[in-house]
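ESCALATION

Customer reports they have been waiting on this structure for their group meeting. Please prioritize. Original submission:
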Amino acid sequence: MSRQSLTGLFSRVGLRRRLAIALVSLTVSAAAIQGIGFWATEYWVERASLETLLERELQYLVEAGAPSSGDAEGGRAPNIRYYRPSHGGTVPLSIRPLAPGWYSDVHVGPNVYQVLVRDLGVTDRVYLLYDSAPLRAREQRMIALFSLGVMVVTLLALWSARRLSTEALTPLARLVAEIRQLDPESRGARLSADGDPELRVISDALNGYMVRLDALIERERTFSAAASHELRTPLTVIGGAAELLLAGAPDPARPLARISRAVAQAQADLDALLALSRLRDSTPTSTLVLERLLPEWADLDASTTSIVWRLSPCTLVAPPGSVHMIFSNLLRNALRAAGAHGEVAIELTPHGLRVIDNGPGIPAHELPQVFEPHFRGRDGGTGIGLYVARALANRHGWKLTLDNRPEGGALAELRFANT
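Update from on-call: job pushed to the front of the queue and completed.
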């Protein structure tokens, strides 16, 4: 099976099983490596000790002048056989061709020996044989114990891996359950910051995503509310002009002109709102002569409030819909605050626009909230106009403020950053 096939097969296994397999494989591999290392060390030490032992035994037998009888003299080691042809005796045929040195696993008859051959002279060669049956039996017992140990370690690793994987994945399971319980309709919902540091990174990332998602939903809701709010005025103008035409107005050109202006303004307002809702979209700009446009945008036919115009020349390069929407919202709020017999002053300078009313002003505890969405003061309103005006101003780098005047009434000021 190819490496890619193994990778694909492993990726289809559940995370819990993958973790358990990895833990078991690591544990068993570590146990096997340690066991093999121990066995290799023991084997090397045992062989080295055996060689040293046989060298000493051979030296002793030679110095003692032991006869070549096939067994060590005096029964010192029943599993040792000694041959010295120069002192008599017959050397087995299987070891006669061996040159001086050390040999492992040499068969002599039915037995297997470790053989040490040394030359004492030109015609004097000695052979010492060690029966390796006890050594092989010891090695087999070691292999059996090693296999049993690997099996025990594997079973323990399986149990430990299952328990550890369950404990390791329990926080993840809780996080998944918490995500599933989130209500899409509940804004401001966040995942808890408790748990492992690794999972906290995931919850923090998801919380950041939900913050951005809440902002997106808020922009979409604001767009819907603002569209309804801002299009109400041009629709009212169009409806009134249409009624005049239906009633047979003596000069149809005037209501038709109002309809045309209202349609153009509604289109500009929609462009501004669409750009505001998407944030990254750019809105086409125009060169606006504000001292001429502001009175046209006011459309005060149905208002009895006194309007004072103090307009200095001001040319601004900006989206018409954004400027119109900010101005119309400030003017509507001022007219509503001033009342039917009040006064509203509109001041225009090359650096900004001010809308002043002589109404009762804004209660101090409400001032920090006037630009919040859906906040309605005591003078009524929809609670969306000032929020949209502030959002549009911020979008273009302008500054919009609203405050009370010492002499009474409120002052709304829009400062242009690019003038």
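Sent to customer with the following note: Residues 15-64 form the longest helix (50 residues).
Escalation resolved.
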